[in-house]
Automatic annotation (TrEMBL):
This protein's encoding gene: bipA
Catalytic activity entry: GTP + H2O = GDP + phosphate + H(+)
Compartments (UniProt record): Cytoplasm
Residues of the full protein shown: 1 to 307 of 600
GO molecular function: GTP binding; GTPase activity; ribosome binding; rRNA binding; tRNA binding
GO BP, one annotated term: ribosomal large subunit assembly
Its biological purpose: A 50S ribosomal subunit assembly protein with GTPase activity, required for 50S subunit assembly at low temperatures, may also play a role in translation. Binds GTP and analogs. Binds the 70S ribosome between the 30S and 50S subunits, in a similar position as ribosome-bound EF-G; it contacts a number of ribosomal proteins, both rRNAs and the A-site tRNA.
Protein's name in the database: Large ribosomal subunit assembly factor BipA
UniProt keyword list: Cytoplasm, GTP-binding, Hydrolase, Nucleotide-binding, Ribosome biogenesis, RNA-binding, rRNA-binding, tRNA-binding
Family: Belongs to the TRAFAC class translation factor GTPase superfamily. Classic translation factor GTPase family. BipA subfamily.
Organism (species): Desulfurobacterium thermolithotrophum (strain DSM 11699 / BSA)
Length: 307
C-alpha cells in the first residue's frame, strides 16, 4: 500500500468538514456502522465550534492510503498550522466559489507556499446560484503570484466541487456526480513521502493526545525507518535532551479511528504510547543511532523587535 499525506486548508465555513466527510463515505473506507460514528463525531465537533487540536483521518482509495491531517481554521493557532503543514506532502486548498479568497485563505496559503508544498485548488460550493468559479480561480492565481509561488506551484490543478452534493469535476461542463476526479488528482499530483525504510528510525511528534487506558499518546509522522511495536527508542527533545523509552502501543488510522498495528512503514502517520514524557516537536529515534529531525518551532513571535 502506498501513502499520500495531505492537509485541507481553507477559510472557516468553506466546506472542509463536509468535503472530508464525503471523501470518507465515497472512498468505501467505512463500513456502515463506522459511518454513523463519523457523523456523530463531526456533529460533536460542530457543537464545540472551532477545531483546536489536529484530527487525523485516513482514507483508503485503490491501493493508496490518504492521510488527511486537519488544520485549525483560525489564525490564532498559527504555530499549529505550520507544524501540520510540515507533516504533509501537499495540500487541498478549498475556496468557496462565491466568497472567494478570504483572510484565512491568505494566511494558510502563505504558509503552504513558503514550505514548498504543491496545492490542489478545490473551488467548492459551485452549486450556489451566485457562484463565480472562474473568478475565484483567477483570484487564487493572483494571490499565488503575489506570494512569489514557484512555477510548479502556479501550475496547480483545479477541481470544481460541491462537497454538499458529493461531486467534483475537472471542467465545469462535466456532468460527473462523484468525487473520483478529486481522488485521482490527489493520487497523481501529491508527491509520495520521501525517506528510507532502511535508515534508522526517525519520527516526529506533531500532536499530543491522552487516553485513560494507555496514557499519553503522540501523533507522529515516520520520516525514516520502520516503526515497530515493542521497540526501544530514544526521544530527543527540541532542546537536544535525550530520554529513553519503549513503544508499547502503536496505531495507524482508518477513517477517524485508530487501529492497533505491529508496525508501520516510512511515510505513515501513526500514534504511539508508552513514553512517560512526550512533547510536540520531539523526535522518536533509533535506540543505537539517535538523530534528531529539525525542530518544529511551535512558538511564533507575534512581533519582531529590531535593535
Ligand atoms: P468548514 O468550517 O470549512 O469545516 O465548513 P463546513 O463543512 O462545516 O461547511 C460550512 C457550511 O457550508 C455548512 O452549512 C455546509 O452544509 C455548507 N456547505 C459545504 N459544502 C457545500 C457545498 O458544496 N455547497 C453548498 N451550497 N453548501 C456547502
Amino acid at each position: 500500500m502506498k501513502i499520500k499525506n495531505i492537509a485541507v486548508i481553507a477559510h472557516v465555513d468553506h466546506g472542509k468538514t463536509t468535503l472530508v466527510d464525503e471523501m470518507l463515505k465515497q472512498s468505501g473506507t467505512l463500513r456502515k456502522l463506522e459511518e454513523e460514528r463519523v457523523l456523530d463525531s463531526f456533529d460533536l465537533e460542530r457543537e464545540r465550534g472551532i477545531t483546536i487540536l489536529s484530527k487525523n483521518t485516513a482514507i483508503f482509495y485503490k491501493d493508496y492510503k490518504i492521510n488527511i491531517i486537519d488544520t485549525p481554521g483560525h489564525s490564532d493557532f498559527s504555530g499549529e498550522v505550520e507544524r501540520v503543514l510540515k507533516m504533509v506532502d501537499g495540500v487541498l486548498l478549498l475556496v468557496d466559489a462565491q466568497e472567494g479568497v478570504m483572510p484565512q485563505t491568505k494566511f494558510v496559503v502563505r504558509k503552504a507556499l513558503s514550505l514548498g508544498l504543491k496545492p490542489i485548488l478545490v473551488v467548492n460550493k459551485i452549486d450556489k446560484p451566485a457562484a463565480e468559479p472562474d473568478r475565484v480561480v483567477d483570484e487564487v492565481f493572483d494571490l499565488f503570484v503575489d506570494m512569489d509561488a514557484t512555477e510548479e506551484q502556479l501550475e496547480f490543478p483545479v477541481i470544481y466541487a460541491s462537497a454538499k452534493n458529493g461531486y467534483a469535476k475537472l471542467n465545469l461542463e462535466d456532468d460527473n456526480n462523484d468525487l473520483l476526479p478529486l481522488f485521482e488528482t490527489i493520487i497523481s499530483h501529491i508527491p509520495e513521502p520521501s525517506g528510507s525504510s532502511d535508515a534508522p528510525l526517525q519520527m516526529q511528534i506533531f500532536t499530543l493526545d491522552y487516553d485513560n487506558y494507555v496514557g499519553r499518546i503522540g501523533i507522529a509522522r515516520v520520516f525514516n525507518g520502520i516503526v515497530k511495536k515493542g521497540m526501544a527508542a530514544k526521544v530527543i527533545g527540541q532542546n537536544g535532551e535525550i530520554r529513553e523509552g519503549r513503544i508499547t502501543k502503536l496505531y495507524t488510522f482508518k477513517g477517524l479511528e485508530r487501529l492497533e498495528v505491529d508496525e508501520a512503514p516510512v511515510g505513515d502517520i501513526v500514534a504511539v504510547a508508552g513514553f512517560e514524557e512526550l512533547n510536540i516537536g520531539d523526535t522518536i529515534a533509533d535506540y543505537e543511532n539517535p538523530v534528531p529531525l529539525s525542530p518544529l518551532h511551535i512558538e511564533e513571535p507575534t512581533i519582531s523587535v529590531f535593535i
